[in-house]
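Notes from hallway chat w/ T.B., transcribed later so I don't forget. T.B. wanted the structure written out for a chain they're using in a teaching module, and asked if we could keep both sequence and structure tokens in one place. Agreed to drop them here.
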Amino acid sequence: MYKSLKNLYKENPRILYNSIILNILVGMVNGLPLAVIYFTIRDIIDASLTKESMLLYIGSFLLACFLVWFVRKVASKKMTLDTYLFLGEKRIYLGDHIRKLSMGFFGSKDASQLGAIMTQDFDFLEMAGNVLLEKYYMTSIASMVAFLFLSFVNWKLALVTFLGVPLALYLIMKRDDDDSQATIKRQEIQGELSANTIDFVSGIKEIKAFGKSDESLKNYTDSIQAFRDVNLSLVGLKGPKVMKFKMAISICMPLVLFLGIYMYKFTEEISLPLALIFLLVSLKIYVPLEEIGGYQEILSLIQASLVRVNKIFSKEPLDEKNLVSKLNKFDVEVRDVTFSYDQKVVLNNVSFKVKEKSMTALVGHSGSGKTTVTNLIARFWDVNKGQILVGGHDVRDIENKELLSHMSMVFQDVFLFNDTIMNNIKFAKTEATDEEVYLAAQKAMCHDFIMALPDGYQTVVGENGKKLSGGERQRVSIARAILKDAEIILLDEATANIDPENEVVIQKAIDKLVENKTIIIIAHKLSTIKNADQIVVLDQGEISQIGVHDDLKEVDGIYRSYWLHREQANKWKIAN
């Protein structure tokens, strides 16, 4: 576990080393009250104790106790403060690290799992300062310091007194693979339970509407049972370990007592005061050891949290060369691009150019690679082969912040924060004035419905905008993109799931958004892309056709097939 802690604290190892030094200091002062007791008992047995020396011992004992209290207080406060401050910065650093990872990382992580790591696991790591450092390491170091001191008095009894300490500490700190894996599994299942609980509560309207109450309750119940089972499994793994630990403690303490009596009574190697002080020392050491045995569960959770957090930090972020810090041109080129998700090839040797202030439409069957192209242009992933160029520069050479500052994206699945409409629109440009937000909303055709709400622009939209309809959410997202006023617009099925009435309104909003912009649009509804400067037809990750609407509809191929189906659909009528 020390290696895992050292890896976690690698940016500031001083905090870890300071904790060790403070624990050594605490261990040293812990023995002072025992030393005073030893001299007091010695003088009582030797009949040399006077009133003056008794008062001196009492004063010395109180001073020693105060010193122990003061040093422990300062050490504990210092370690706790350093831990919370460092891990607070580490939480921020984790967020910064995650934002630099490719989108492939997020595809492999459930949002609830990632949220649990960023919150709950860090809560357990904060315990490491209080539980691990103060309880385990402080007890260990105090034991070593006391052992060295008592060895000068009588090395035999010192050896006997501390014989069980290494064994007890080994049993506490020993990490079994099965134990570690089960604890990590417990954390993952707890994340799944949280996700299923949220789904069950948030989706209760849809669950009832589609008569899926029993099925959804079963998913929730299965998660609880899985969490119960993994906890029972951990109890089964930890039970024997805890029993071994308690057995070691229960044997060692009486053994010290018997050997101390034997050495005093029969071999006369030690005096009675020394025998008593060794007994007190053993109680001083073994009682805290027995107490920290109860922290086994927390220790396992800390270890599992260390593994999960360090695993994320070990993920390599997208390489930012930052050779280009300012873009002046906004044409886009996809040059000989090949890309795979894991082993599945999604794009194969794809090439096309998008002139500045022109519209290029991407068309193709579901899974043909359209969305992947837009994700690669925004550098959510890096290509396996080839290049994506913006303004003549490889996106891998452009400062990421600079690249994305010139792009606005409107997706089919709109995400709104649980905040006011004003702040959701301002998310694109936090320094924008209210007047700029109103103007963007008017262009996005959403100002009127916003003003009709009880709180207007200060209306809180709820989790993921659930208080708004799908069309309203889409228009707010377009207002956000209009406010950003980026030179490159990426539209991914922006009107795919919108009713006809909203589609007309949203199409007008999109027309305002894309004026004088470089546009790359994905659309199944060909009516929205008839006037595109270029239509790229993708089929199974390869370019099947490139051209304009009037030419492509006359040539046998995927696009003509799409167009004919649309023409036939337009002739449909509802029979009386």
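Follow-up for T.B.: The radius of gyration is 35 Å. Might be a good example for the class.
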